[in-house]
Amino acid sequence: MLEIKNVTKKFGELTAVNNLSFTVEKGQVFGIAGPNGAGKSTLYNLITGLYPFEGSIKFEGKEIRGFPSHKIAKLGIARTFQIPQTFPSLTVKKSIAIGNYFGSDAEFDPAYVDEILKFVNLYDKQDEKTGQLKLLDKKMLMIAAALGTRPKILMLDEPMAGSNSKEILSLMELIKRINQDMGITIIIIEHFMKVLTELTSKLLIIETGTEICCGDPNDVTSDSRVIECYLGDGHD
Ligand SMILES: Nc1ncnc2c1ncn2[C@@H]1O[C@H](COP(=O)(O)OP(=O)(O)OP(=O)(O)O)[C@@H](O)[C@H]1O
Ligand SMILES: [Mg+2]
Predict the structure, then answer these.
(1) Is 11's C-beta closer than 6 angstroms to any atom of ligand 1?
(2) Is residue 124 part of a domain?
(3) Distance CA 171, CA 54 (A)
(4) Strands 202-207 and 29-33: what pairing?
(5) What are phi and psi of 228, to 5 degrees?
(6) Average pLDDT in the 84-106 region?
(7) Which atom of ligand 1 sits closest to the CA of residue 51?
(8) Structural domain of 121
(9) Ligand 2 centroid vs 206 CA: distance in angstroms?
(10) CB distance 51 to ligand 1 below 6 Å
């Protein structure tokens, strides 16, 4: 469904993404992990058309390199950001409606917006201003606004960051439902290995923009190269 081939991104002297290649299959939950500064968020920025790069990114067989972000959104690729971003003066409902109005190729559909509000458990808070929301609700809203665009693939950037264990369970449950009930393919960047091994069927580890290994999450997380680069020497 999404084919990344020999993708490289340099910022001046710094190579943030170094000749990366991988494929995400339809229906999959695909995980990406790696130390801080590994190039994970930059990779999302390349897939969503924020920067020019070398190499090829194909979505459903079609090259999308050079496409503007709004066109990529309309093809069916949505993402969230590492730091929750909302429009603070807008209501919850309007924020999801904006995703549906501007980010989807289909006609604006208020019934679909209601469906999403219920799906993420924000129906009762639909008239609240997003600036007043607690962190977990802000995260749910960011995911909901992305769902508003009717994506085929949803890319989450460290959705668990700053959450307690109960909130992590709620987010994991939501991610599973998005994948299984809505049939949306998911890419998730995450630092919590337990979350990745439970949610994903394939896991890519990168360090300084370069692939360390990619495969079954249980194999990957027990790989000595991953333990050394990601968890640090001497981690049991
Ligand atoms: N717009 C930019 N201009 C210059 N350098 C950048 C830019 N964006 C990212 N970088 C650099 O590219 C490298 C990769 O950054 P990136 O944010 O992709 O890492 P990350 O894997 O998402 O890290 P984290 O786990 O901390 O979120 C870092 O060295 C970062 O400073
Ligand atoms: Mg990042």
Answers:
(1) yes
(2) yes
(3) 34
(4) parallel
(5) -70, -50
(6) 92
(7) 1
(8) 86-150
(9) 12
(10) no
Q: What is the pLDDT of residues 37-80, one digit of tens each?
A: 999 999 999 999 999 999 999 999 999 999 999 999 999 999 99
Beta carbon of 39 within 6 Å of any ligand 1 atom: yes
Say yes or no: CB of residue 9 within 6 Å of ligand 1: no
Residue 233 has pLDDT above 80, yes or no: no
Six-digit token string for 41: 């968020």
In this prediction, residues 205-215 reach a mean pLDDT of 93
117 in any annotated domain: yes
Q: Provide Rg for the chain, Cα atoms.
A: 18
Instruction: Look at the chain and report how many structural domains it folds into.
Output: 1
In this predicted model, what pLDDT tens digit does every residue of 130-186 receive, in sequence order?
A: 999 998 999 999 999 999 999 999 999 999 998 999 999 999 999 999 999 999 999
Coil, strand or helix: which one is 149? coil
* Alpha carbon nearest to ligand 1 atom 27, residue: 36
Does a structural domain hold residue 16? no
Give a yes or no: residue 121 inside a domain.
yes
Taking the centre of ligand 2 as the mean of its atom positions, its distance from the CA of residue 129, in whole angstroms, is: 27
